[in-house]
Amino acid sequence: MPAAASPAKDSAVSAFDQPIARLTGAGPRVLEKLAARGLSTLQDLWLHLPLRYEDRTTLTPIRALQAGVAAQVEGTVEAVERGFRYRPMLRVAIGDDSQATLVLRFFHFRSQQVNQFRVGARVRCYGTPRAGQHGLEIVHPSYRVLEESDAGELGEQLDPVYPAIEGIGPATLRKLIVQALDRLPDEASLELLPSEWLQGLGLPSLRTALLAMHRPARDADLAALAAGTHPAQRRLALEELLAHHLSLRRQRIALQRHRAPALKGQGALAKRLQDALPFELTGAQQRVFAQVRHDLAQPSPMLRLVQGDVGSGKTVVAALAAMLAVEAGKQAALAAPTELLAEQHLANLRAWLEPLGVRVAWLAGKVTGKARATVLADVASGAAQVVVGTHALMQEGVAFHDLALAIVDEQHRFGVHQRLALREKGASDDAVPHQLVMTATPIPRTLAMAAYADLDVSAIDELPPGRTPVQTIALSGERRPELVERIRAACAEGRQAYWVCTLIDDSDEVVAQAAQTTFEQLSAAMPELRIALVHGRMKAGDKQATMRAFKQGDVDLLVATTVIEVGVDVPNASLMIVENAERLGLAQLHQLRGRVGRGATASTCVLLYQPPLSQMAKQRLATLRETNDGFVIAEKDLELRGPGELLGTRQTGLANFRVADLARDAALLPQVRELAERLLHESPALADRIIGRWVGGAARYASA
Ligand code: ADP
Ligand code: MG
């Protein structure tokens, strides 16, 4: 690392960790309330950044006040009126040199307060005026009665307003933060980032940034601060993003130190599978399989994410990869987040692999007793070459003979921890299995970089040929009756349809149509059709039987909850109706819609909504009408919802940033990545300190 990166002294690092308990006013009760919000060290207080600021650096003449614009004024009490018309009320009229009067109005007050406001007393107050009965008034201003001797000097800095912490008054919180800031180490000891690098980006030092946030000068760029684009904010976000990125990269590096079985076979088994498939692989599938195959041939573990839109054909790529493990005499495991999906994978893999003489075993939570013992024995002996299942695969007591490849489907439904648990199943003499993670929820490129710094990413960015894009229409719920005709028409052509309800139970408060009710209504309206119901509260066996019947074409219309959301594959289904579509997120709607349009027939997705639509819901529905491209939808989702929701805390913990906001700060990510690589190569110890400062105890994946 260049000398400019003068690493902080240890005293500074420990200042970060100093407990708040040392501060005056931090009694046990206050500490407890702070801890409940995750604040326990001085650093936590430094990073408890203001929500907004109040400008008490100037006085505004009363005449110049504007309704809706916060200001500080000073005046002399002209009249005091205490009333009890409907509830207690105190009105204080103050006037100043501008020959105008302002009313201060209080609904809650103590008699002591009333006494303070003597006619002729000098009062300074701050608040947002509004139009009252007699000109402008401020309701519950913050105020101070100035003593005769009080010169009433104005401050030089804006007053921070902090996010409230339950059980702690704003004044107490402010005092604690002031003390914490007074203990900020000097610039050199605090700084961890290379100064030439910060200069290059035009960003301030950490100390300067923190002070600029907590104590902005009166001429600070408030608009930039409010928008989160102030250099001080970008500086803090940069370091935080860097810390998270480094921590993911560290995990990656730690994993790479392990060995993994190099699967270098001829690929004969994969070739046989490919030849036996009723279709040709798309170019994208071939390319991604080649990448996977290259990774698997290495003696260090693969950690690859395959992104592919719904229906892009990820399963077959997974199956081909599994064949490389089997050919080498080893095992592969495929885990799916729901039983329904896992069962479908099982059916696909059995159909594809058993003709090749490959033994596929099934392990889910409901496999119990003797059956379970048999499966576990087969998994442990290696007789089971490919094991398909749910998270049950990752539980204790499941021991593989020689697991070479762990495949996780739709990983966004799993926590990072679960993913790691499956990896650990292979740990024998330091060797870990290769990992293939598949997701149909594409995330925008910039985000992928941040979220998956520990993964290599491939994209199956092409759909199998012959698919007609799904036509999407949005209809108000009142037009529900028209849909009966649509369903009849589709089924008359031998097609099948989904009707998706967003709740299982009827509920008074929520407008959502319960699946059960809908099922009964639809059955009554279309007695000639074979209609079935599937929801999450049904017994697994019944659910499976219903799905199977639908898949085999024995059911025309499937009324379902979102249990069918991910991965369910019935190519003959060409119509989907989603009720209360306005309640679902873009990604989820796109997933749902992906259940149709899997065959060659033109398919339709009808999004039923309950008016009036919020602006956000309108935009979501419009996006879905306009595009079928999961990547475009992901970008839009990011724009509309922000990354926290998009990624989900479970997936990455990325939603837990203190300062950074991925949507807002996405432009910093390329620099973050660049600096991360440099630090890891040139100054790994410094990288660790940056991680420790920001991710610290939360570096829970670091041991992975
Ligand atoms: P997803 O990527 O959503 O998991 P699947 O793996 O379930 O998609 O594949 C969707 C459907 O497309 C399946 O019926 C699968 O057999 C079929 N499929 C996969 N690849 C191709 C291909 N290259 N050509 C035609 N059909 C394909
Ligand atoms: Mg799938």
Automatic annotation (TrEMBL):
Function: Plays a critical role in recombination and DNA repair. Helps process Holliday junction intermediates to mature products by catalyzing branch migration. Has replication fork regression activity, unwinds stalled or blocked replication forks to make a HJ that can be resolved. Has a DNA unwinding activity characteristic of a DNA helicase with 3'-5' polarity.
Keyword Cell membrane applies: no
GO terms for biological process, alphabetical: DNA recombination; DNA repair
CDD domains in UniProt: DEXHc_RecG, RecG_wedge_OBF
Keywords carried by this UniProt record: ATP-binding, DNA damage, DNA recombination, DNA repair, DNA-binding, Helicase, Hydrolase, Isomerase, Nucleotide-binding
Ranges of residues in domain Helicase ATP-binding: 295-460
Family: Belongs to the helicase family. RecG subfamily.
Gene3D superfamilies reported for this sequence: Nucleic acid-binding proteins (2.40.50.140), P-loop containing nucleotide triphosphate hydrolases (3.40.50.300)
InterPro entries the UniProt entry points to: ATP-dep_DNA_helicase_RecG (IPR004609), DEAD/DEAH_box_helicase_dom (IPR011545), Helicase_ATP-bd (IPR014001), Helicase_C-like (IPR001650), NA-bd_OB-fold (IPR012340), P-loop_NTPase (IPR027417), RecG/Mfd (IPR047112), RecG_dom3_C (IPR045562)
Occurrences of domain Helicase C-terminal (ranges): 493-639
Designated gene of the protein: recG
EC category name: isomerase
Catalytic activity as recorded in UniProt: ATP + H2O = ADP + phosphate + H(+); Couples ATP hydrolysis with the unwinding of duplex DNA by translocating in the 3'-5' direction
Name of the molecule in the record: ATP-dependent DNA helicase RecG
Matches recorded under NCBIfam families: PRK10917.1-1, PRK10917.1-3, PRK10917.1-4, PRK10917.2-2, recG
SMART domains listed in its UniProt record: DEXDc, HELICc
Pfam family for this entry, one: RecG_wedge
GO molecular function, one term: ATP binding
Ranges in coiled-coil conformation: none
Recorded superkingdom: Bacteria
